[in-house]
Amino acid sequence: EVPREKFRSVKAGGILPCLRALRSKDLEAFLDAVFARTGLRPVYAAELLAGSVFKRQHLLEALERRVAGGGLRILKDGGYVNRDEFQGLKKGLVPAAAAILQRDPLKQFVSAEELRKACQSHIHEASFEEMLAELCKEGKLGLNSGCYTIPGFNADLPDEKARLAELLLEFAAGCGFVPFSADTFWKAHGRSMNKNEIQRVLDYLYNRGRLIRLNNRRFMTHEAMAEIKQRVRCCIEEKGQIDLIDSKNILGYGRTV
Predict the structure, then answer these.
(1) Mean pLDDT over residues 144-148, rounded?
(2) Which long-range contacts (CB under 8 A, 24 or more apart) does 59-68 make?
(3) What tens digit of pLDDT does each residue of 31-54 get?
(4) Is 198 helix (H, G, I), strand (E, B) or coil?
């Protein structure tokens, strides 16, 4: 437990410079003291004006000078934060996401809460949301259903899962025009593998652009899909339309597959 006197000393160390600046009516010293103790918690003009000795116009002009000089940045909600601290933490979010995804290569997305914990720093919600939004706008993160991924990031699979991925790609090539599911592969291999892991690796291959995923969570190769499209195109050019019989002739199977 922190001794009471020590706690008071630490707390006073942050507040006393503000009080001294107020007493001497030193606006710049006041702002220095405020932003030295707020970290990434946004500070608002109304908050600074409450009970202070400074005129509103003078305070706003001083804040704008600091924004223009690069010392502060203003958030979309009007709050002010230290620019270097904001940029420093923002810069660390993509490597933090990469580390999380690398620990579990089959993991597709990272939640905001996981990123917050990985930073090991208290981040005010407004600052954190703005960092994530900027990273998405810059194309450094992608947003999907409230979670984040890194465009183009490929985590290395461990040997066992890399071998399963190879088997799935070989199986997909062998299926040709016939789409297959995790269950199809599982049964074809004597039900000896973990079906959930098969599904996760299939989703991994889809997210990496190695397979096409259909609406019914069945998969096929890009080559097979390209050939199907070419055959359909040729059929339409020749006959002006396509029917179920043509579809069966093109694919080699009917709707029951």
Answers:
(1) 92
(2) 59/27, 62/27, 62/28, 62/31, 63/31, 66/31
(3) 999 998 887 899 999 999 886 789
(4) helix
Joined together, the tokens standing for residue 202 give 């299939």
Q: How far apart are CA 206 and CA 127, in angstroms?
A: 34
Q: Is the pLDDT of residue 248 over 70?
A: no
Cβ-based neighbours of 190, under 8 Å, separated by 6 or more: none
Query: Cβ distance 109 to 149 under 8 Å?
Result: yes
pLDDT digits (tens, 9 = 90+) for 6-32: 334 334 446 788 888 888 899 999 999
Strand partners, 74: 80
Contacting residues for 222 by C-beta, under 8 A, at least 6 apart: 211, 212
- Which helix (H) or strand (E) segment is 220 a member of? strand 219-220
Tokens of 195: 């079906």
